[in-house]
């Protein structure tokens, strides 16, 4: 993208001014001219750019959001009206109860004058006492008398209720829908407000605390001076004052501008509205340009007190702004959203039941794949990130949950929203050693030495390159066992250990006796060395196992060297097991072996057998 205010590429200092003069010998360098886009041929003449706002002293870009705005969920109204098959009463109730449980204090529960379903639903939650004392329900209506009367009627007996009245104010709606000018359209809002007050006075009693909300629909395409004029006219009727707020909701009914212009419009309205201290300024972004979340956040920075939206961005066309993303964006910055998202999968399941829709796999914070990394460098960084957190926790003597979350590639800890680490790393052809060893560590407590990680990841990569697709943790484990740990059901290898006994001589050398199966024959192996591993090597050598080893001439003893030995415990406490890793050079080839046992000596002998078996397997 290029912006008209940017300096032209040639007007600034050259990026490569400091580069040596002889830098670009060889292939022709890419330049801006060589990547020029071509005209698309699409009918751009049919569209006009949106109006920007002349607000050079705008203040919102420098603000931070330090507290959650008021939230209104309109899942049961704007969300519901956009469904092919609107929610049944049972599904509506399920959604209402979910919203209450999550902590929403303002819930738009329907458009009661639309028909019996919505009207009866509003009556049912009132009559069944399902609305907690601290929750305000709101209902939407057009500015038409018969609709207003029916709307107010639906609220009788509600503890806290708001009537929300709207009419479109943008030029094309004035001309096409209402076939009038500014005066007529302003009058619709004024008359509607008066009627709401009259019917509330007539129909509601002192069981109800009553509020009022007005929306100049299509605010985004309405001239700012006219939007202000209509809102002022509405306020002149409602008369907001201390203890009598008015909610002025400025909807991006169709998202038409960048979030920055949306924010400018909010700052302009917030500065110019009279009686501002009695106004709850509310944003209602839709997502036509795909930037509703940014638009909502910038509107809050620009003065909005409240945001209306739907869970997971349900709503007309591309949806309303996503309340879950907004809330968890705040959470990820250390700001309490005031909504409990700690069981995100439960929320998603209920939402999917109610809406009969699916949350896509890449949906922020909740999609199946959003805490998953397939690519090698991401996996490597995440694995190191987890290890660093664990080390820090041990150093500071606290649990990992107490530490600030600083983790490559994962903006929040999946556990904080009730997800597990199971899917954090998944392996396919784009994965590297970090991811594969993360799976082994996480699921099998095996912390492979770095060079062994490289060896095993080549084995997995050969498989993903040949077969494509994902390799599941189960398949990784099977491949690992097949490669390093011959199991009784699939035996292979020249040496199978049965039992071993060591004794130390007075020179500090270990004498070792091993009962093993060698080349299918029960054999007693005897050796000595300065430690059990060296003694086992000696025993294998004496038994002729290394004869004909790769890298040696046939019939001779090949060169077999121990290069590295690593061990670690696999779990703490009684019954803990140890893992041992051996790096073996046979001729010019390197083979790792692994052994696991409750006894560390036996684990290391098993690791030697594993490496030797692999060396001779080929
Ligand atoms: C951006 C939004 O989400 S706005 C909310 C939209 N949601 C809904 O519409 C869902 C519920 N609506 C309904 O079920 C129906 O529209 C009803 C039952 C409320 C009304 O149905 P109808 O009486 O058939 O009217 P309809 O919806 O077609 O509206 C058209 C008439 O209302 C007028 N009108 C539209 N909006 C408004 C408004 N906000 N205030 C006053 N009049 C309005 C139109 O100018 C038109 O008038 P005309 O017949 O004189 O030309
Ligand atoms: C009724 C209004 C607030 C609305 O939903 C919109 O303009 O998008
Ligand atoms: Mg809407």
Summarize the structure.
Keywords: Acyltransferase, Amino-acid biosynthesis, Branched-chain amino acid biosynthesis, Cytoplasm, Leucine biosynthesis, Magnesium, Metal-binding, Transferase. The chain has helices spanning about 75-80, 90-100, 115-125, 145-155, 170-175, 180-205, 225-240, 260-270, 290-300, 325-330, 345-355, 375-395, 435-445, 450-465, 475-485, 530-540, 600-615, and strands at about 70-75, 105-110, 135-140, 160-170, 210-215, 245-250, 280-285, 305-310, 495-505, 510-520, 520-530, 560-570, 580-585, 590-595. The chain is an alpha/beta fold.
Description:
With 618 residues, this protein is of the alpha/beta class. It folds into three domains: 66-355, TIM Barrel, CATH 3.20.20; 376-484, Helix Hairpins; 495-616, Double Stranded RNA Binding Domain (2-Layer Sandwich). The chain is 36% helix and 17% strand. The protein has 17 helices and 14 strands. The protein has helices spanning 75-81, 89-102, 116-127, 145-153, 171-176, 182-203, 224-238, 259-272, 292-301, 323-331, 344-355, 376-396, 433-444, 450-467, 473-484, 532-542, 600-617, and strands at 70-73, 106-110, 136-142, 160-168, 209-217, 246-252, 279-285, 306-309, 495-504, 510-518, 521-529, 560-569, 578-586, 589-597. The strands form three sheets. Strands 1-2-3-4-5-6-7-8 form an eight-stranded parallel beta barrel, surrounded by eight helices. Helix 4 (145-153) packs parallel to helix 6. The radius of gyration is 35 Å and the shape is elongated. Residues 5-15 have low confidence and may be disordered. 3-methyl-2-oxobutanoic acid is lined by residues 78, 140, 166, 215, 217, 249, 251, 253, 284, 286.
């Amino acid at each position: 993208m290029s912006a008209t205010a940017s300096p032209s590429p040639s007007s600034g200092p050259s990026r490569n001014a400091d580069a040596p003069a002889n830098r670009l010998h060889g292939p022709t360098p890419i330049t801006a001219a060589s990547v020029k886009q071509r005209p698309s041929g699409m009918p751009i003449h049919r569209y006009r750019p949106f109006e920007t706002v002349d607000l050079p002293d705008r203040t919102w870009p420098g603000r931070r959001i330090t507290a959650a705005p008021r939230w209104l969920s309109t899942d049961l109204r704007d969300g519901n009206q956009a469904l092919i098959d609107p929610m049944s009463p049972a599904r509506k109730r399920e959604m209402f109860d979910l919203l209450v449980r999550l902590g929403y204090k303002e819930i738009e529960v329907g458009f009661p004058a639309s028909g019996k379903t919505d009207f009866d639903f509003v009556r049912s939650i009132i009559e069944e006492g399902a609305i907690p004392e601290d929750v305000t329900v709101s209902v939407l209506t057009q500015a038409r008398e018969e609709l207003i009367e029916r709307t107010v009627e639906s609220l009788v007996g509600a503890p806290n209720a708001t009537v929300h009245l709207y009419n479109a104010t943008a030029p094309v709606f004035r001309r096409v829908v209402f076939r009038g000018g500014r005066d007529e359209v302003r009058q619709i809002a004024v008359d509607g407000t008066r009627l709401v007050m009259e019917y509330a006075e007539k129909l509601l009693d002192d069981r109800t605390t009553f509020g009022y909300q007005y929306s100049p629909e299509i605010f985004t395409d309405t001239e700012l001076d006219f939007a202000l004029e209509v809102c002022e006219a509405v306020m002149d009727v409602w008369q907001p004052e201390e203890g009598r707020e008015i909610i002025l909701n400025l909807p991006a009914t169709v998202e038409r501008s960048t979030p920055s212009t949306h924010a400018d419009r909010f700052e302009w309205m917030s500065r110019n509205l009279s009686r501002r201290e009695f106004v709850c300024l509310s944003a209602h972004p839709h997502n036509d340009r795909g930037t509703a979340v940014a638009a909502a956040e910038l509107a809050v920075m620009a003065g909005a007190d409240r945001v209306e939206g739907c869970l997971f961005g349900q709503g007309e066309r591309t949806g309303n702004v996503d309340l879950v993303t907004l809330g968890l964006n705040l959470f990820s910055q250390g700001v309490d959203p005031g909504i409990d998202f700690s069981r995100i999968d439960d929320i998603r399941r209920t939402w999917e039941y109610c809406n009969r829709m699916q949350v896509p796999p890449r949906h922020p914070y909740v999609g199946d794949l959003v805490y998953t990394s397939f690519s090698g460098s991401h996996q490597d960084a995440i694995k190191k990130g987890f290890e660093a957190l664990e080390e820090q926790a041990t150093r500071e003597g606290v649990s990992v949950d107490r530490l600030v979350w600083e983790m490559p590639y994962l903006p929040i800890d999946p556990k904080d929203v009730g997800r597990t680490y199971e899917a954090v790393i998944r392996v396919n052809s784009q994965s590297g050693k970090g991811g594969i060893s993360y799976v082994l560590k996480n699921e099998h407590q095996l912390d492979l030495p770095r060079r062994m990680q490289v060896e095993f990841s080549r084995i997995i990569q050969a498989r993903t390159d040949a077969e494509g697709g994902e390799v599941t943790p189960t398949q990784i484990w099977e491949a690992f066992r097949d490669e390093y740990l011959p199991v009784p059901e699939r035996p292979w290898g020249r040496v199978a250990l049965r039992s071993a006994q060591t004794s130390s001589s007075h020179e500090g050398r270990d004498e070792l006796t091993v009962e093993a199966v060698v080349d299918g024959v029960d054999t007693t192996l005897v050796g000595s060395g300065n430690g059990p591993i060296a003694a086992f090597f000696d025993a294998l050598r004496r038994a002729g196992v290394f004869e004909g080893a790769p890298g040696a001439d046939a019939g001779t003893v090949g060169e077999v060297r121990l290069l590295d030995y690593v061990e670690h415990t696999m779990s703490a406490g009684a019954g803990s097991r140890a893992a041992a890793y051996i790096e073996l050079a046979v001729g010019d080839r390197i083979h790792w072996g692994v052994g696991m046992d409750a006894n560390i000596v036996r684990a290391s002998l098993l690791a030697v057998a594993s490496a030797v078996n692999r060396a001779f397997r080929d």
